[in-house]
Design a protein that fits this description.
The chain is of the alpha/beta class and about 425 residues long. It is built from 18 helices and 15 strands. The chain has a 6-stranded mixed beta sheet, sandwiched between helices. It has a 5-stranded mixed beta sheet with strand order 9-15-14-11-12. It has a two-stranded antiparallel ribbon with strand order 7-8. α12 runs antiparallel to α15, α12 packs across α16 and α13 runs antiparallel to α14. The radius of gyration is 26 Å and the shape is elongated. About 35% of the residues are buried.
């Protein structure tokens, strides 16, 4: 009886089982060429000084490509960023200066290195300003623009949506520039696959068509789904705004807390998308229910934080979280529970410093919750206290205008405020010299 030989898993299989793929331009050919070694790219316009959680799916996809033996190109859009992509936007992007674009591009380059190994050409970091800013407009129209149909461009979903609100001519040109990017990298770096979010489908197809017209060869595209949370919110958006990868904008502790607060329904899916844990392990965590699901959330938070901020910062954030919320067994460790004697002296916990003099006469409790940012306003703080959701040093606050004086500080001159179950803030008292 002939033995069945199992086909070796490819990066395409990885993408499918982890939930990365929304559409591919050729469902037969793309899986086939990914059995070999190829060069692929994703473009990132430097419209901010840091990436945020919403950028993680395309960045993780590049990392998976590299881990499976392919060569990824992280393309910084120093040129296209000067124009602004209308895809997925209901209004025109703010046009940034050359200086702002260049500064953002340099900062983003550093973040790519957390995910990709650029040594020995294992991955490439390119900036499309190197070729787009050198184009001659008339030559570009004659050599590239001639291959584009205005009727076809107008039919693109991203353009149709914007036509009602108004689409500037500079934005209308964006598709040509991105298509040119694909052709340029195909020509000079043998890049045969462009990947991107679902809103990039029209731009990717335009690039594939340009490669076919100019080179007579075939290129391919893969798009990823827009990641929504189980409660219908766009991934990475919080009450405070975006969750940034830059530690100066979102601290490792806050980043960790973002992941550990994941909706129960999203844990398995996010473990597959935002960590490199083997899928066998992801499946096991996905089986956990009830209180045990906390273990899966801690693993998600630890692994996601480790990728962006390193293992030491992830451990530090995990330890700080355990001090505040209680411990769960982690890879054989023994659990402990929060106690009144818990030491909160940890730089990871959100902290403000206040002068001792401010507490001589006492600060009303509700104003302190507003000052730390645990509540958006004094009235919100009063409601929180009246509803029984405010705590000082793990004791429930009973009176909204109770004066907080120095007697509430511990021997190490600290106090801990808590709003609800998961929002903490530490206050450290300072003595004027």
């Amino acid at each position: 009886m002939a033995r069945r030989i199992e086909r070796e898993k490819t990066v395409y299989d990885v993408f499918v089982e982890r939930g990365f793929i929304e559409k591919v331009t050729d469902e037969e050919k793309v899986p086939e060429i990914l059995r070999g070694k190829v060069t692929c790219y994703i473009g990132f316009d430097p419209t901010a000084s840091s990436f945020h959680v919403g950028n993680l799916v395309p960045i993780m996809s590049l990392a998976h490509m590299q881990r499976n033996g392919h060569r990824p190109i992280a393309l910084v859009g120093g040129g296209t960023g000067l124009v602004g992509d209308p895809s997925g936007k209901d209004e025109m992007r703010q046009i940034l200066t050359y200086e702002e674009i260049n500064k953002n591009a340099e900062l983003q380059k550093k973040q790519f290195a957390q995910f990709l190994d650029f040594s020995n050409n294992k991955a490439l970091l390119l900036n499309n300003a190197d070729w787009l800013t050198k184009l001659n407009y008339i030559d570009f129209l004659r050599d590239i623009g001639v291959h584009f149909s205005v009727n076809r461009m107008l039919a693109a979903e991203s353009v149709k949506i914007r036509l009602e609100a108004g689409l500037s001519f500079i934005e209308f040109n964006y598709q040509l520039l991105q298509a040119y990017d694909f052709w340029y990298q195909f020509k000079h770096y043998n890049c045969v696959i462009q990947m991107g979010g679902s809103d990039q489908w029209g731009n990717i197809v335009a690039g594939i068509d340009l490669v076919r017209r100019l080179e007579g060869k075939q290129a391919y595209g893969i798009t990823f789904p827009l990641i929504m949370t189980a409660d219908g919110r766009k991934m990475g958006k919080t009450e405070k705004g975006a969750v940034w990868l830059d530690a100066q904008r979102t601290s490792p502790y806050e980043y960790y807390q973002f992941w550990i607060n994941t909706d129960d329904r999203d844990v398995k899916r996010f473990l597959a998308l935002f960590t490199f844990l083997p899928m066998e392990e992801v499946e096991e965590y996905g089986k956990l229910e009830g209180a045990d699901l906390r273990k899966a959330k801690e693993m998600l938070a630890f692994e996601a934080t480790k990728i962006v901020h390193g293992e030491k910062e992830a451990e530090k954030a995990r330890d700080s979280s355990r001090k505040l919320f209680g411990n769960i067994p982690f890879r054989g460790e023994v659990a402990h529970q929060l106690s009144p004697s818990t030491d909160y002296s940890d730089d990871s916990v959100p902290t403000i410093y206040m002068d001792r003099e401010e507490f001589v006469h006492g600060i009303p409790m509700f104003k302190l919750f507003e000052k730390t940012g645990l509540c958006a306003s004094g009235s919100a703080a009063r409601r929180l206290i009246e509803q029984g959701g405010a705590y000082l040093n793990e004791e429930k606050v009973e009176t909204f205008d109770q004066p907080v004086t120095v007697k509430f500080f511990s021997d190490n001159k600290e106090m801990l405020l808590r709003a609800g179950k998961k929002k903490f803030h530490r206050i450290i008292i300072l003595d004027k010299k």
